[in-house]
Design a protein that fits this description.
9 strands
Length: 217
């Protein structure tokens, strides 16, 4: 299980994160009010084995063995996975992936001329704890040609069907122009699939923090 950040480098920074986030943020929506999390396109850049970073833990902002920090606005992303009765889904594998601060994916198929970031992991995974909770440290997603800021995520495990979807940023000016966000069929689903990012605690090591819940069918 990996809801705490585990890289050996920067250990004191991670201890600060754990202390700052010791009391998990609560969702704006109780589990019974959630709709089933919709499936949204995986996108072209879910990592192939050849593109999977050697360091793939839940801190995407640092890479084991490197001293730098990812470019961009650092965020803590926490949440919870529940089933359709509101019960915690334990030991689910939670993955996220996204483009870097410049708009380029950590993937050999992304032939964009945009810069690479040698300190951004691009993909990370963790396992939900006994209450279905997960935690990631990453960067605030950015827009790139044709897409608004978003984070891809996948939830998988032995007792349920794999779910792949995307998370959006509340208040982004481009949401109404994004075809995938517009495909969400109700205002409630649109609200559920957008995350509010608020200022993080002063000693957390990041600028913003957000929380969201995933309901499996």
């Amino acid at each position: 299980m990996s809801t705490t950040l585990t890289k050996s480098a920067g250990r004191s920074r991670r201890q600060l994160l754990i202390a700052a986030a010791g009391s998990w943020v609560t969702s704006a929506l109780p589990a019974w009010a959630l709709e089933k999390t919709p499936r949204l396109t995986e996108g072209p850049f879910y990592p192939r084995p050849v593109d999977m970073p050697l360091d793939d833990d839940n801190d995407l902002t640092r890479i084991k063995g490197k001293q730098g920090v990812a470019r961009g606005t650092l965020i803590d992303l926490t949440g919870r996975v529940v089933d359709n009765s509101g019960k915690a889904v334990v030991a689910a594998i939670m993955e996220i992936w996204q483009c870097n601060h410049y708009g380029r994916y950590h993937d050999g198929r992304d032939d964009s001329p945009l810069p690479r970031d040698p300190f951004f992991q691009g993909f990370g995974k963790t396992t939900t704890d006994a209450e279905g909770r997960f935690r990631f440290r990453t960067i605030r997603p950015v827009a790139y040609p044709g897409r608004v800021p978003h984070i891809h995520f996948k939830v998988k495990g032995g007792s349920f069907n794999e779910l792949t979807s995307q998370l959006f940023i509340a208040g982004d000016a481009g949401l109404e122009k994004d075809a995938i966000w517009r495909s969400l069929r109700t205002a409630e689903l649109k609200k559920q699939m957008t995350i509010d990012l608020a200022p993080a605690a002063a000693n957390s090591g990041v600028s913003l923090a957000g929380y969201f819940e995933i309901m499996l069918g």
